[in-house]
Amino acid sequence: MLIDTAEITVHGGHGGAGMPKKHKGPDGGNGGNGGDVYIKGSSNIKLLNQFIQKDIYFAGDGGMGARNNKTGKQGKDIEILLPVGTSIYDKKTGEFILDVNKIGERVIICNGGRGGWGGLTAEQGVRGEEKKLILSLRLIAYFGLIGLPNVGKSSLLNEITNAKPKIANYPFTTLEPNLGVFEGKCLADIPGLIEGASKGRGLGITFLKHIEKVKVILHCISCETQNTLKDYKTVRKELSEFKLELTKKPEVVILTKTDLVDSSYIMKLTKELNKVNKKVIPVSIHNYQSLEELKKVLRNI
C-alpha cells in the first residue's frame, strides 16, 4: 500500500539550563542548545508509510551548563526522510511550509530551543518548537510509464534506471509504482490500467491517482498488440473519464518490444500512432541504440 498523505508532530529539543555562579566560586556555563528537526529528500516514494507506526518525533534536549564556564552538551538533531515530491503544511494554520524537491536536500523544519545563560542570573533553557505537520505526496516522479498490463513498462524502467522491479508475464505484476532515477529525474512505473479503471475495475482508481502525481506521461504500447490505436484510446479514455486534466499532461508514446516484429511492421505501427501523437519512440530493451534514442528524448523534455 502506498500512503500519500500523513500527519506528524515534531518537537525541537529544549535548551539546557544555565549553571548558576556560586558566591566567590567559578562561573557557571551556559546550557546547550536543543537539537533541530531536519527533513531530507529521498527517492523512496513509500516513506510516508513509516508514519503508520510512528507519528511523533523528538530531537534531543540540550545539557545543563557546568562549572568553569563549560557549556552544556548540544541536543541531538534528528532527520526525517521524506519522498521527493512531498508538500508540507502547518496543520494548525493550513499554511504551506515547503516542498521537498531534491534527493538529498536537507532543511530544518523545527528549531531546538536556545540554552539558558549561566552565571549570577542563570536562566532556564528555551523550549524547542513544536509543529503539527500535514505531509502530502503531490508528485511521485517527473516521468510516469503508463499503459495496459504487460506492455513492458517494468523492463523499460529497469534498463533506463537499474531500478530492478519485479517482472513477470502476467497482468498486475506491479501493484504499486516502482521508482528509478534517470539523470537526477525520478521515473515511475505505474501499474497497468485496464478498460473500466476509471469506474473502479481492477485497482484502477488507485492507479489513476498515481498518474495525477507525475509531470510527463510516457505511454507504452506493445508491438504485440492487435490494434495499437484501440490500446492507445482505451488508456486515454480512462484518463479523461477519471480527470480530464490528465489528458493535458505532456505525453510521449513508446512503442515497446520492437525486437518481436520486423522493421516494416514497426514503421506501420508508428505511422498509425502518429495520427494521435507526433512523439512516437520505437524501443526494445535488447536494442542499445533504441534505448539511447529514448534517453535523448527524456533529456530534452
From TrEMBL:
<dbReference type="InterPro" id="IPR027417">
    <property type="entry name" value="P-loop_NTPase"/>
</dbReference>
<dbReference type="InterPro" id="IPR006169">
    <property type="entry name" value="GTP1_OBG_dom"/>
</dbReference>
<keyword id="KW-0460">Magnesium</keyword>
<dbReference type="InterPro" id="IPR006074">
    <property type="entry name" value="GTP1-OBG_CS"/>
</dbReference>
<feature type="region of interest" description="Disordered">
    <location>
        <begin position="11"/>
        <end position="35"/>
    </location>
</feature>
<protein>
    <submittedName>
        <fullName>Obg family GTPase CgtA</fullName>
    </submittedName>
</protein>
<dbReference type="InterPro" id="IPR036726">
    <property type="entry name" value="GTP1_OBG_dom_sf"/>
</dbReference>
<dbReference type="InterPro" id="IPR045086">
    <property type="entry name" value="OBG_GTPase"/>
</dbReference>
<feature type="domain" description="Obg">
    <location>
        <begin position="1"/>
        <end position="140"/>
    </location>
</feature>
<feature type="domain" description="OBG-type G">
    <location>
        <begin position="141"/>
        <end position="301"/>
    </location>
</feature>
<dbReference type="GO" id="GO:0042254">
    <property type="term" value="P:ribosome biogenesis"/>
</dbReference>
<keyword id="KW-0342">GTP-binding</keyword>
<dbReference type="InterPro" id="IPR014100">
    <property type="entry name" value="GTP-bd_Obg/CgtA"/>
</dbReference>
<dbReference type="InterPro" id="IPR031167">
    <property type="entry name" value="G_OBG"/>
</dbReference>
<dbReference type="InterPro" id="IPR006073">
    <property type="entry name" value="GTP-bd"/>
</dbReference>
<dbReference type="GO" id="GO:0005525">
    <property type="term" value="F:GTP binding"/>
</dbReference>
<keyword id="KW-0547">Nucleotide-binding</keyword>
<dbReference type="Pfam" id="PF01926">
    <property type="entry name" value="MMR_HSR1"/>
</dbReference>
<dbReference type="GO" id="GO:0003924">
    <property type="term" value="F:GTPase activity"/>
</dbReference>
<dbReference type="GO" id="GO:0000287">
    <property type="term" value="F:magnesium ion binding"/>
</dbReference>
<comment type="similarity">
    <text>Belongs to the TRAFAC class OBG-HflX-like GTPase superfamily. OBG GTPase family.</text>
</comment>
<dbReference type="Pfam" id="PF01018">
    <property type="entry name" value="GTP1_OBG"/>
</dbReference>
